[in-house]
């Protein structure tokens, strides 16, 4: 079974496709934007990578959402719920962590089935 890597660099790939599943690296938005803007940017990036891999958000299996501050939970959820559209919601976990830099407020990691 083959492994395909998208946007590989010296440290990581943005996506890895194997066995009918696409695994995305954690996606972050523009540093220093608010949680709403970062969430929108993250989800747009996820849409782009999923399309490049040959699938879309309707095929999401699981999502992990990391927030730098749980005070941003409602803002992130508002954007998430609009994006997911109330259908085909994946399993999801959300937690508070210290992200790579204090400028990041949201990071999302997803796994999706291919078409």
Structure description:
A hairpin with a 4-residue loop joins strand 1 (3-8) and strand 2 (13-18). Helix 1 runs parallel beside helix 2 (73-84). Strands 1, 2, 3, 4, 5, 6 and 7 form a seven-stranded mixed β-sheet that branches. The two termini are 17 Å apart. The protein is of the alpha+beta class and 115 residues long. The mean pLDDT is 97. The chain has two helices and seven strands. The chain has helices at residues 35-53, 73-84; strands spanning 3-8, 13-18, 21-24, 27-28, 60-67, 91-96, 106-113.
Element order, helices and strands?
EEEEHEHEE
Give the CA-based shape: globular
Average pLDDT number:
97
How would you name the oligomeric state of the polypeptide chains in this document? single chain
Number of helices: 2
Beta fraction = 25-35%
- Please identify the structural class as seen in this structure: alpha+beta
Q: Write down the Rg.
A: 14 Å
Helix content: 25-40%
How widely separated are the two ends? 17 Å
Number of β-strand runs: 7
Low-confidence stretches: none
Main sheet record = 7 strands, mixed
């Amino acid at each position: 079974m083959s492994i395909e890597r998208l946007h590989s660099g010296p440290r990581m790939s943005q996506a890895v496709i194997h066995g009918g599943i696409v695994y995305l690296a954690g996606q972050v938005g523009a540093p220093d934007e608010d949680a709403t803007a970062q969430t929108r940017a993250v989800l747009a990036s996820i849409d782009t990578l999923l399309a490049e891999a040959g699938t879309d958000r309707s095929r999401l299996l699981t999502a992990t959402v990391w927030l730098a501050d749980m005070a941003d939970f409602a803002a992130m959820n508002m954007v998430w719920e609009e994006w997911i559209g109330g259908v085909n919601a994946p399993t999801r976990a959300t937690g508070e962590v210290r992200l790579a830099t204090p400028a990041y407020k949201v990071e999302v990691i997803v796994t999706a089935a291919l078409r």
